[in-house]
Amino acid sequence: MTKEEKIQHASALLPVSPGFRANVVLTANQWSGILKSLDEKKIDELLLVLEEEKGMNQDVETEKLRKLTINQTSYLQRLEKLKVRMESLTHKAPNNA
Amino acid sequence: MPDEVSAQPGMMDQISAAGNEFFGDALLGDQLDQLATEKPDLAKEILLSMDSEAKQLIDKNGQINRDALRKQLTLTEKFSLMAKMWIAENLSGSIMDGVVGEGKKIETTSFADTIASVKEENKLDDHNIYYPTAEGNMGKATMLWNLKGQVETGDESTLKFMTGSTLVMPAEDNSEESILGLDVTAALQIGLLKHGITLKTYGVNETIPEPGDKEIQIVFAPPVGFPMKADGTLDIDSVKKYAELYKREKGGVQWFTNQHLMAAVMTSADPTKIDENMAKCGLSGEEVKAQLNSIVTGVPVVATAPVTGEAAVVAAAPAEGAETTGTAAPTEEPKPE
Lengths: 97, 337
Description:
The complex is a heterodimer of chains A (97) and B (337). The relative contact order of chain A is 0.09. Chain A is built from 4 helices and no strands. Chain A has 97 residues and is mainly α. In chain A, helix 1 (3-13) runs antiparallel to helix 3 and helix 1 (3-13) crosses helix 4. The radius of gyration of chain A is 26 Å and the shape is rod-shaped. Chain A starts with a helix and ends in a 5-residue tail after the last helix. Chain A has helices at 3-13, 18-21, 28-35, 40-92. Helix content of chain B is 48%, strand content 14%. By secondary structure, chain B is α/β, with parallel strands linked by helices. In chain B, strand 2 and strand 3 (138-141) form a beta hairpin. In chain B, the strands form 4 sheets. Chain B has a 4-stranded parallel β-sheet. A two-stranded parallel ribbon of chain B has the order 1-4. In chain B, strands 2-3 form a two-stranded antiparallel sheet. Chain B contains 12 helices and 10 strands. Chains A and B meet through helix 2, helix 3 and helix 4 of A and helix 3, helix 4, helix 8 and strand 6 of B.
């Protein structure tokens, strides 16, 4: 990745980074202008922080979705049991034999 | 029909709806109907079980969402600190030097201290920013924002930033300024971090919370003093937003242009003091009253020329049969001071 590409990548991540947004709210273009004055090593360092933050937030989101799915599945299974029980009761009800 | 069922009116509908909702199957709903008819106790038990399962699902989902949110907030706190450190280490110094001049001393002061100092020393000059007081009067605060002037004139004085304050300024002034390829506000957001000051920007129509003790807010207002709609009529909603800022209990609001302040004062200040206050904005009492009358009666006000500090906004005569809204204009004479 060239320096220019790294700047573009970081400039796209910065406006949506919760950590950076808590301090400064700038557009991608504004960030791009700022980052141009930095040497590549500093931009690499910044990208590392941004990628780590993005990855950790994604992990939390993935874990949340996994747990919600398990919960939903479990709920449907319990409903299914209720359904079976109700069918069984209905069949056993008088006048339904 | 058994007595138990007939004793519970509406139960059949309830069961049928529940069956359809939870099972998504009209046939099962019918089975529930049948069960309610033949074994109401069992049907009730099934219904209660359904409720319980649904409640468990919702509770658990809520818990999962809260846990995730808490983790995300913790992450944001952690990365906010890292971001602050990275900015302070790599950007703040050079950008701040570019904005205010290399080696300039930066100080912070609170709004209350600044106003007290201005009053005590009677510091008034053309570069000051107008500010309102709780009584509805206007004074002037030391110009804390005239960075362009300070950079161009090579002013060597210490640059003070007033925290716990809100600056209402025209959006155009922000875009016109450009230092280091950035607009001044963006550069200051970064530059001030090193000094422990957070600078936040808002549009006038956004929800604007009270500023924190170490925070400066900038509210971007329309470039011409009075907010106008595309059809040339006064944007009353924006004026009301000014008034909300003006009436803040803690104060701390600065107004970059007297017209912005006037718009706020008109909707919130004691009308008996308007004459005196508006004279300080460079408007005559008659012009002020025309403005005030126009706003409070909802008659459209038309900007006829760019506002230059003189009265540049005139009240249009109400069209015949025009619908008016709002409170009637005050008729009492100003009280002598």
